[in-house]
Structure formats: structure tokens, C-alpha cells
Amino acid sequence: MTGQKLAQRNYYGKALADLAAERPDVVVLDADLAGSTKTGDFQKVCPERFVEIGIAEQNMIGVASGLAASGKTVFASTFGVFASGRCWEQIRLAVAYPKMNVKIVATHCGISVGEDGASHQALEDMAIMRVLPNMTVISPADAYEAYAATKAIADYKGPVYMRMGRSEFPTITEEGEEFVIGKAKVLREGSDVTLCGCGQMVCYCLDAAEELAAEGISAEVINVSTIKPLDADAIIASVSKTGCCVSAEEHSIIGGLGSAIAEALCSGPCAPLERVGTRDTFGESGKPADLMAKYGLTAADIVAAAKKSISRKG
Amino acid sequence: MAGELSTAELENIANKLRLHVVEMTYEAGSGHPGGSLSAADLMAALYFRVMRHDPSNPQWEDRDRFVLSKGHVAPVLYAALAEAGYFPVEDLVSLRKMGSPLQGHPVRGKVPGVEMSTGSLGQGLSMACGIALAGKMDGKDYMTYCLLGDGELQSGQNWEAAMFARQAGLSRLVAIVDRNHLQISGNTESVVGLEPLPEKWKSFGWNVIIIKGHSMRQILEALDRAQGSSRPTAIIMDTVKGKGVSFMENNAGFHGKAPNADEYAKAVSELKEVIQ
């Protein structure tokens, strides 16, 4: 069902390197982390349009805004905590408000950052980006989708925040599969519960669906890689059929995918929703798999949430 | 606008801008007259003589760019743009009113000639760096001017931008500091001191020019020298907050307060006396 383990950031770097040849308007900025975010792959092939900003994320956003005002399509990358949090108000004024063509692409999001600990584990980034008007928020499900999404956001004119993880995890989409911003994809059809995931949690939703099937429960799995604008129609259509929902994200249950789905469901079908994510807490150092287990981000946690959601059906 | 206006004519335009500032903030019942008045001479020099721009073609790609980092002095920017012909002067009194493009702080895309959205202090120089960098990448020769308040230099982002501008070789970037010494809470040196300010810019690798900010001759000379610099240039202009209206001069109280009816009448009569 799932493919080989690949890191999203490697495919982000690959997409940027391809864009270097295809798109003379693309400029890439980084804040001293080009080796980790993989913007270095763009730097290698196109040093004249790569800008090292140094450890100065607020300035990075201002420079990105000025470049975009001058016709450039700008990618600005660093780790998720810094890309979203250090310069949040700069993003608000200089990117979101004037609808600048700036793509803030963050790597090292989520608790699977691992050993670096809480200071480096972005668990709030989707919440604080999603709340900004004009901002599109994307969390690709795997490395192939990270590649396709990078190409798609380069073609889209406007502000985007895209988050990716650090580690390798299994692919669940096909290489070369089309990515459409704002479109959720049903990966597996089912009738008892809808499992909505983003990022690597999509893979665990699929694993959970298998486990549930073994117990005679039919789960529908949706890859919701665009958190904003949310494909509410697709989610509501599914939940109207199954009668209940689970959201799964490597992010706080406050403000991210689960909240977005709750907002959609409260103005649509009134169905139970169980949210899988970190529960109003910071992370800590540890091995990624151990942390995912400790903080309730496994297929087993999704299975438990699905059963609870089903039990709450009226 | 390849203007050939004389120094005296530019000084006269500066006072007209001041009159607009007083009228606009009075009509709005709010706004920031003090820092608008201190920057009026510079704005007249930029928009009526120094900058290469075309009010009938605000998106002209070879235009010189102006970024108002101290976005609260939007009134003097709007006044300069209107007098230069970007939009009708009669529209100025819609400042800060609901539905007006003349928002309390400048918004890109709403007003022809406004390059960037600003108002949250400390961000304009970074934006100006991006604009100057794009010009350098594209082989353009346009200048990028950024007007900064002195108080906002307390914000660290300015110094991130200052470091970056030097590193990126942005020789066609000019930061102009309106050194009027006053911020909301009082004198900058008693709030969080900026001095020695010229040395700060010098140590960041900038070409520094210090002038009297109400001397049109010195403003023009400084802007001319900046164009030939091999490094980014900081023009620190010593100014008087509230310049041109006696009771607003050196008065932090008029940082963010509009004149009342009596004050308005007095200010208008003072300014009309000096306008030709």
C-alpha cells in the first residue's frame, strides 16, 4: 500500500532545482539553513538567484516582500518554528496583507524533528498561518506530493505557507501525480468513518484503515494536504456518508487541520469529530518514533479515535 | 519627473505639503502631523526633483522606488503623491475615512504610487532591500529610497537589514533617517538612546551623510551624493518634529494627535503666510 521512505525536503530541493531552469522569475531565500532545508540544491544550480539572508528571519520576509513587489516569485525557507513564528507579524504586514507572491516553505515541522527538542518542533505553525487572511496553507502527504506542491505553488500567484517534516517516511502518492491546491483526495473509500489526515499522518490513516478493516470497520481516508482553503465540500460529502470523522495531524489539535474540519462541520452536517494531534503541549527530545508514540500520533491512536467517533454517532 | 524646480520652489512645495498635512489630519480628527511635518522638505525634494518617476505610469519598471518605513506619516506621502499628480488633491481630505483608499497607514495597491504596505515600524528597510536587490539582479539602475523614523531604529530588524544591504552590495539603496529626536514617550535618548547614530550606520558598512533636514540645499546635495555611492547610503537628517507650525515644533504631543479647531486655524494661517 505504501511506498519507500523518502524525506519531503529532498524533493522540495529537487523541485526548486528544476524550477531554476524553468522559471527565471524564481528567487530563493534561506536563513542559514540551506543545507537542511535543501534550498542548497537550488543554490548549486542557480547561485545568482539564491539569497543567503543569514540568521535574520524578519529581514528575510521583508526582503522577500520587496523582491515580490518587483516581479519575483519568491521562496523563503527555514525551519517551521522560525519561518512561521519568528516573523509572524512581518508575514502579516509584508506578505499576507498585500497578497505578495511569496512562498514560505518550512521544513522540520512536527514532533518527528526528534532530538532537537521542543524549541525546534513546530506544532503551532499551521494555526498561526491559517488565521492570516489571503494565506494558503499546505502540508503535503509525502515526498512526491512535496515536489508536485512546490511546482503548483510556484504557478499560483499569492502568499503560501507550506510545511514539511524532517525525517523520511513512506510515500503514499505516485511520483508525477497531479497536485491541485485546495483539492482533497479520497485515497480509500469506506462507509463507517472518515479519516482526514495531512502530512505524514495520511500514511498512518491508511494503516489505521487497514487495522479497522480487519475488525470489520470500513474507513474512508482523505488526504487533506491543503488546510486552507479547506476542501470542505469533499469532507462534508464524505462525512455525510459515514456519519463521523477523525482528523490526524502532526500539529496541535488547536488551530490546525482538526480545527479547520471542526469549523467546516459546524456549518455543515453536525457529526462527531475526534482530533488526533498534540494536545496543548510542547514536545521534547527523543527518537522520532518514540515521540510520535508518546504524543499520540500513531496508527493505533487513529484507530482508537475512529472507534470513539463511531461510538458518538447519534 | 526630471524636475527643474529651484530650491525656493521646492521649499514652497514643502510648505504646501505641510498645509495638506494639517488639513488632512484636522478633517480626519486623528493622524500623525508631527513626523509628517518634519519630513516635508525631503518629500518635496524626492518627488519634485530627485526621483525618476511618472505619475501617469505608477508601475513604470524603471522608476525610482520610495518606501515609507515610518508609515504613520502617510499624510505627507499622500500629499506629495497628490501634488505630483498621482491622484486628485481633493481626495486628500478622505484620509482615514471609511471606504477611502487613503488608509491610516499606506497600503500597496490601494493608492497609485504607494509601493509597499507599512505602518508596523521597523520593516520598511527590509522591503527596500528586496526592491533594491531585484533591481540589481535585473541590471536596472533605479534608486530605492526608504524613509525611516529615528524612534523605529530601536527595532532590531532595521539592523538585520542594514547588515544585509552591505553584504548584498545594495549601492543604489538610500535610507533616510528623519532624526527629529522625538517618539511617543519623549526624546529618543531618554527612551532607548540611539546615539552615536552615525557611527552605528558607519560600523554596518554604510556611506553616511549627515545634514540639516530643513535645508533644501543640503537635502539635494546629499541625495545627489548618494547616487554615486559604491555602498548603501544612510542620510541622517536633523529635523524638527512639527516643523512649520510653531506650537507643534518639538512637541511630542503632536506625534499622533490631530489639531483641534483653534489649532487648525492657527496652523493654517501660519503656513499660508509662508506659501507663495
Helix-strand blueprint:
The complex is a heterodimer of chains A (314) and B (276).
Chain A: E1 5-7, H1 8-22, E2 26-30, H2 34-37, H3 40-45, E3 50-52, H4 57-69, E4 73-79, H5 80-86, H6 88-96, E5 102-107, H7 125-130, E6 136-138, H8 143-155, E7 160-163, E8 168-170, E9 185-188, E10 193-197, H9 201-214, E11 219-223, E12 226-228, H10 232-242, E13 245-252, H11 257-266, E14 273-278, H12 288-294, H13 299-311
Parallel strand pairs in A: 2-3, 2-4, 4-5, 5-7, 6-7, 10-11, 10-13, 13-14
Antiparallel strand pairs in A: 1-8, 6-12, 9-11
Helix pairs in contact in A: 1-8, 4-6, 9-13
Chain B: H1 7-28, H2 33-38, H3 40-50, E1 65-68, H4 74-84, H5 124-137, E2 144-149, H6 156-167, E3 173-179, E4 182-183, E5 186-187, H7 188-192, H8 197-203, E6 207-212, H9 216-227, E7 233-238, H10 261-274
Parallel strand pairs in B: 1-2, 2-3, 3-7, 6-7
Antiparallel strand pairs in B: 4-5
Helix pairs in contact in B: 1-3, 1-4, 1-10, 3-4, 3-9, 5-6
Largest interface comes to: A-B, 28 and 34 residues
Radius of gyration of chain A: 19 Å
Provide the CATH topology of the largest domain in chain A.
Rossmann fold
Question: At the first level of CATH, what is the class of chain B?
Answer: Alpha Beta
Radius of gyration of chain B: 17 Å
Structure annotation, total helices of chain A: 13
How big a fraction of the residues of chain B is strand?
5-15%
N-to-C order of helices and strands of chain B: HHHEHHEHEEEHHEHEH
Largest sheet strand order of chain B: 1-2-3-7-6
Helix fraction of chain A by DSSP (H/I, runs of at least 4): 40-55%
CATH superfamily of chain B: Thiamin diphosphate (ThDP)-binding fold, Pyr/PP domains
Catalogue the unreliable spans of chain A. Answer: none
Shape of chain B: globular
Query: Helix-strand pattern of chain A, N to C?
Result: EHEHHEHEHHEHEHEEEEHEEHEHEHH
Given helix and strand content, the structural type of chain A is: alpha/beta
What share of residues are in beta strands of chain A?
15-25%
**What's the number of extended β-strand segments of chain A?**
14
CATH class of the largest domain in chain A: Alpha Beta
